[in-house]
Known about the structure:
The chain has helices spanning 16-22, 81-92, and strands spanning 27-28, 33-35, 41-42, 46-49, 52-55, 59-64, 67-72. The chain has 93 residues and is α+β, with helices and mostly antiparallel strands. It has a domain at 27-74: CATH 2.40.50.100. The strands form two sheets. A four-stranded mixed beta sheet has the order 1-6-7-3, with no helix packed on it. The model is unreliable at 14-22 (pLDDT under 50). Residues 27-64 form the Exosome complex component N-terminal domain.
Amino acid sequence: MAVDMRLPSVRKQVTDSLLSATTGKHLVVPGDVITSDTGFMRGHGTYMDEEKLTASVAGEVERVNKLICVRPLKTRLTPACRSVEQEISLLYH
């Protein structure tokens, strides 16, 4: 029985200048290293892997001061508490 195996290939990194010139956004996929600088705090959509901040979801990198998050490209609707309270008040009034 013959088995064909392929090793994963190394992806070419897209340079920031090329990416920002075409889209103006820094897009990542799960497993992409966002930064190796330890001065940043990790936010939603990120995790620390061997002292590197890594994306856990596909999306756009957002930075607010020292906090780095990845805003997912596709999400499910999660209603806010106020909208639920408003719906309940409309039902019972």
